[in-house]
Amino acid sequence: MAVEELLLYFLLLPALGYVIGAVWLRRAMRNIAQRELGFLREPGINVRYLVIAQIFAIPTVFGILLLVQLLGVREGTVKDSVARALGWTFSAAAILTVLSEAWIFVRWRASAFRENFARTLVLAVIPESVITFVLIVGIQIVARLGTGSSTNAESLTRAAQWMLLGSLSAPLGAFLGNRASTLNEKTFGRILIRAVLGEPLAVVCLVLAFLELAKR
To answer: What residue ranges define each of the domains in the chain, with the CATH number in brackets?
Structure first.
């Protein structure tokens, strides 16, 4: 597989997700500022935006790690179908993770940057489990490609495909958590439980992916 295609899957598309998420969130903040004059000049607001932007960058960092590993695999051992399946899975998971996190902050508007910043941050971190699971499976897939493991290409491809399905856990959790009408100290526990209800899908797909990786 060409290096350009690997760059597309593991760097450019995740970076695109980062840009979309960061711009979406910044535009939402400006919309708040139009209704609440001085919002962007309040102490800590822009600092908190930078904190969130750093969280958005995590999938891109993970993509670079996988890209470096794939580039280190000896030429001829990387089967195009496996690398392409993993690439589409990772890029989709990266974009869905960032957009789900941005959606959570956009949903709770100004309170997400004020009294509910810590609570919203906790809710936004939950989708990170999706890209973390994909990274774990991706590392295992690349390791098997690099060592010439007897695991066949079809099993590796299916493992990646299971994680593609599991990546839907990110927007699902954000949707469930965002359905609440208010976020405060009293409602946070219930909202957190709702948000976590999207996690079983990712966990089940992770288990199924490892079962595929275990095949010989």
So the answer is: 3-213 (1.20.120.610)
In sign, the C-alpha dihedral spanning 7, 5, 141, 171 is: positive
CA nearest to 174, candidates 132, 133, 124: 124
In this predicted model, what pLDDT tens digit does every residue of 12-70 receive, in sequence order? Answer: 999 999 999 999 999 999 999 999 999 999 999 999 999 999 999 999 999 999 999 99
Distance between CA 25 and CA 40 in Å, rounded?
13
pTM: 0.94
Q: By three-state DSSP, how is residue 199 classified?
A: helix
Sequence-ordered alpha helix ranges (H) in the chain: 3-7, 13-35, 45-56, 58-71, 80-107, 117-125, 128-147, 153-166, 169-178, 188-196, 199-213
Question: At a CB cut-off of 8 Å and minimum separation 6, what does 78 contact?
Answer: 1, 70, 145
Q: How many CA atoms lie within 13 A of 183 on its CB side?
A: 28
User: Is 51 within 8 Å of 113 (Cβ atoms)?
Assistant: no
| Residue ranges in 108-168 assigned as alpha helix (H) | 117-125, 128-147, 153-166
